[in-house]
Amino acid sequence: MKPKIWLSSPHMSGAEQTYIKEAFDTNWVAPLGPNVNGFEQDIKSYLNQDRHVAALASGTSALHLSLILLGVSHGDEVICQSKTFSASANPIVYQGAKPIFVDSERDTWNMCPNQLEIAITDRLKKGKKPKAIIAVHLYGMPYKVEGINEIALKYDIPIIEDSAESLGSLYKGQNCGTFGDLSILSFNGNKIITTSGGGALVTKTEEQKQEAVFLATQARDNAPHYEHSQIGYNYRMSNIVAGIGRGQMTILDSHVSKRRSNYEFYKSNLAKIDIIKFLEEPIGYFSNRWLSCILLDSFETREKLRLALEKENIESRPLWKPMHLQPVFKDAPSYCNGVADDLFQKGLCLPSGSNLTPEQLDRVISTINMYFAG
Ligand SMILES: *Cc1c(COP(=O)(O)O)cnc(C)c1O
Predict the structure, then answer these.
(1) Most CB atoms within 10 A, among 43, 85, 91, 349?
(2) Residue 73 backbone dihedrals phi, psi, to 5 degrees
(3) CATH code, domain carrying 315
């Protein structure tokens, strides 16, 4: 068996261990400490906007706290992009609220502004105003920021920007992770940078950040004993994990370049196969190309190609299955135009790690070429 080629695997810089060693040497082995503050500062500087960053245990916990900060509670409705990873939607249910799913458009594969407006007006007609909109920059491609913002503003509904897959992506020169009323990042093992597991909440005010940190550390009131007037969570990032994050921030931009060059490599080397289509960047969009995705002509081709790659020990994966088609969300209302489903049927994510070697990339290309040569 040939050695495994992974879809997206962790890629360390070497600098991580310096920060971790320092944490051990100074006994900062806790969910606070200099690495946590340093990592938050590094992200804040990178995002290059007037924002505040709280380092948390995961992207999912950041989404959960976002909903709490926006006052989402039992019986509320929250609009969520249907084409995404389940973690975007699950926290809605943690709050006892109801997810309302909205389909995608073809230019970015993300939330369709037209479908969004249809969903909002219909929910209003049915008697409830959605409490928030969760929009996602899938695979690193920014969503139609202006289109989505315009609708959100028109109906006065806050946006939670799920930027878990898009750290390093830009929309008209501005960093993804700075477009929401609240934004979240993820540093899970397969993301563009990883802390092994972790996430962050990006806020517009210092007060929101402090509120998030308060909730993330068990909501302890100011008292010598443990006093609680609210339900808290254990969602803060540890100082050890943040040390990995500081090391990863030093190579974020080179990871973005490498992932973008993976995409370019696939595109130019598969150009002769007419069936294969790529998602191009619209003007003004800069994707970190977290995953390089292709579209085939049918479900059958997509599955056969996936199995041909698997036989060569190459991991590939269908695009996210839309949430409105997931058994767990079968009762959730959805506003659909068929785009997310079609992309799911025909789309495949190819190995995309920043640590892929030229030999590994060649193996992927020759396997695909061999499949199409019959
Ligand atoms: C990874 C991911 C999350 C969740 O982040 P975790 O850190 O794994 O909890 C949320 N949304 C999207 C779109 C993701 O890809």
Answers:
(1) 91
(2) -145, -170
(3) 3.90.1150.10
